[in-house]
Model the fold of this input.
Amino acid sequence: MRILFAVAPLTAHLYPSVPLAWALQSAGHDVRVAGNTGLVGEITAAGLTAVGIGEPDSPLAPITDEELDRFSEALGFEPGSDFDRLWRATRYYLVAAYKRYHPDAEGRQGPADNLVEAARSWRPDVVVWDPACPVGAVAARECGAASVRMLWGPDYFGWIRRTLAGRKGDPVSAAGAESDPLAALLAPVFGRFGHDFSDDLLFGDVTVDPIPAQLPGPEGLRRIPMRWVPYTGAGPVPEWLARPPERPRVCLSLGVTGRAVHDGRDERVAAVLEAVADLDVEVVATVNTAQLGPDPSVPDNVRIVDYLPLTQVMPTCSAVVHHGGFGTFFAAAAHRVPQLIVGEDLGSALNSTRYLESRGAGVTLHADGLSAAEVGKQLSRLLTEPSFREGAAAVHADLTAAPGPGELVPVLERLAARRRDRG
Done:
């Protein structure tokens, strides 16, 4: 069986797919991963075959405020509500990604065209695609493959589609491009290859969902649960990391993707460094010089590391401070590590923060107005109160309750066989 993975050009989108790709490859199947040129090195470093699909010849126009306002109006957001905060925090990561990573109205040849052409040439039996790379669904249709959407976080687009339909009182399929801004945004991507916007393209045949069932998701979609097995990159283990820590070790990570979004000094880093200066801990801060800012004050108990795979450092940690990204969240959960989230989108039902607190596995603080005193107070609680370690164990149990990637191999084999039988 041939399986083609298609991912948006970000490591945060590639990494969640790697364990499933490994499982399929280990079962004897031919696996390839298609990604923009800048991602090819990360794909091959994971031991997978890369299909480079190039980069856009010129920058694509970003999504406009007017287009974003259409979503806000259609979805009925109210200023200050949980969903309003969710939308403001995710719109540039998710909805804008559709426009930025796929063909524009000028019709320029680009990665989307190359992905579809690669699928037509190689003819995979299954295409597993990232929700931020919806042209993967087109690639599957063009070569007659089973279409498998694989999530890397909550199903934001399923939620948007269901919310739009619910507000109109119509079935989802009835919400067309005329009244649905999501359909209007994606119609040019699908139409470029001669396909109309439809739920079949938007959601694929099935959705592989690595998010624990305790987090809410939209109903009515065919889902295959899968355990999130953390993969956070590859690299040699530093000598200092091979030795057990002499004091409780705390990891600070604000995510690799966030570096491209937050340009310059990150005040959260400064607050955490000030907070830990007087604590009896060892801190590993995976931040770069831009995030530190000019003339940073780095305490003696802090080790600055530009990049380190979280799967290496997390097993040695007693706590982690991070931005709320799901890659970091589950890397910590896999090792029962209590978490302090310092994020921008707190309180949303689709975010990890409510789930974390409901399980007693950590604490969340809003990034706005973050103080060193509050960070120090909450971090001290994580390190000294046994309930947080118990809560982290509960999150770990939720995580491991789902089938592992290897258990999905026969499911995808049957899906491909049914697709072949239908011709």
Q: What stands out?
A: Residues 405-422 form the longest helix (18 residues).
